[in-house]
Amino acid sequence: MARTDNTQAPLTRPDGSPIRVLAVDDERSLTELLSMAMRYEGWEVSTARSGSEAVKVARETRPDAIVLDMMLPDFDGLEVMRRIRSENPDVPVIFLTAKDAVEDRINGLTAGGDDYVTKPFSLEEVIARLRSLLRRTGAALTKSDSTLVVGDLTLDEDSHEVTRGGVDIQLTATEFELLRYLMRNPRRVLSKAQILDRVWNYDFGGQANVVELYISYLRKKIDADRSPMIHTMRGAGYVLRPAV
Question: Which run of H or E residues covers position 103?
């Protein structure tokens, strides 16, 4: 069965683990927005607000890609890239800058940057360029369209295989359908009425206990001895989010 949402197939590292991205900008609001957009892709995001911090974080996290502001409070993005690549020579870099002069674009690319985005930019543009860059450099693989991925949880709609952190999870047919619906709508609060309608095809009316029961079954299998992914939003429903 094909995916029914409008998102592209998720990217992962070749070993199946989440993509790691470092976002570097001295504007906190911008790094927060970038982080939110990247985490929505299922990626792990680290941030830094200065060149020296970026070098330190890159050494600790070994990112698969870096989104790097050209102008930082201590030293510029070119120097940050030079220092990071002295230890991680192949990491791809997308430069961000408020400047749109041709010479700045040329400086960034001739110094070894892989791409260049001028502020202001759309988050969708940055994500699209990151996805393209990660695929082009071989840092990431695209999961097949039959595979849903949220954090370290994967569900193959064709084979009905489910894993979390690489560990197989055995589900009944109903548990599988419930998890599939949750995973097709990550970070979205789903009401009991919506779940009943989509999973059991019931009109809402006195059957909420069925949803509660199967959510409890799923939690025992998905969240047992792990950071929880299935959360109850009191009075609203349930939401599936990558574990923190």
Answer: helix 102-110
